Amino acid sequence: MLTIGQLADYVGVTRRAIRHYHALGLLPEPERTASGYRSYHAQHVVELHRIKVLTDAGVPLSRVRGLVDAEQEAFREAAAQIDAELRGRIAELEATRESLDRLAVRGEPFLPPQVTRMQQQMRALGVSERTLQMERDAWLLIQVLFPDLVGYWLDTQQAMLNDPVYRDLYLRTDQAFDYPADDPRLEEIAQATVEWMMTHRPPAQGEWTDDALAQQLVAGYRRGYSPGWRRLMERMAELVQASDDRACRDPDDR
């Protein structure tokens, strides 16, 4: 007669594992002594050892019951099936490792590599880390809201950064974060930026203009950061609207 502790020591498992096997129905419950303790016999040693061999080999507990007493041919078939499942899991894990490795070597794991390159370019211009972080967050937002347009906008942004006038405007906008809302420099930046935009504005994209909610999310993303930026964005929107209104009244001025 063996106690649960003695059985665990003989087979090389824990008492907790034995209780778990009882709960799953893999190991039959033994008779109990008058004091209420489990009393194990030699057959329990045999059955528990079989379970241990299978679990040590990586067989899922859900499959152990069908293999413990299986005939040799059935055992081979089941083992082959489990092997195929394990190979599939290994392939998935290896793919996950490869994906993690690719992310680890990128400067920004959540965004396309082109964003990292542009960030390096902007950092070299003297753009603040605060604005660079906001840019990364903004690209994440765009990536979620307009996944089909990310590539187009990345190419557009890169082309804009190649223009020295735009680079100067971008740096001035970065500095405007700390301006009060009534700073006269905001009007200068807004006027110069809108003038540049009217000359270099890319063709409108249907998916962008058709999704009003997404448009509001992106357009309003920066406005809440500082009074200076909020006023700058508002003034730029006013100037763009005024320009569009004039163009509608006199198409020849477009």
Provide an overview of this structure.
This protein is an all-alpha fold and 254 residues long. The protein has 13 helices and two strands. It folds into three domains: 1-61, Multidrug-efflux Transporter Regulator, Chain: A, Domain 2 (Orthogonal Bundle); 70-105; 113-253, no CATH class. Strands 1-2 form a two-stranded antiparallel ribbon. α3 (42-56) crosses α4. The longest helix is centred in the middle third of the chain and has 33 residues, at 72-104. Residues 1-70 form the HTH merR-type domain.
Descriptive keywords:
MerR_fam, mainly alpha, 3 domains, Multidrug-efflux Transporter Regulator, Chain: A, Domain 2, DNA-binding transcription factor activity, DNA binding, two-stranded antiparallel ribbon, 254 residues, Transcriptional regulator, MerR family
Short description:
This protein has helices at residues 4-11, 15-24, 42-56, 61-68, 72-104, 113-125, 129-145, 150-161, 164-175, 184-200, 206-210, 212-219, 227-249; strands spanning 31-32, 38-39.
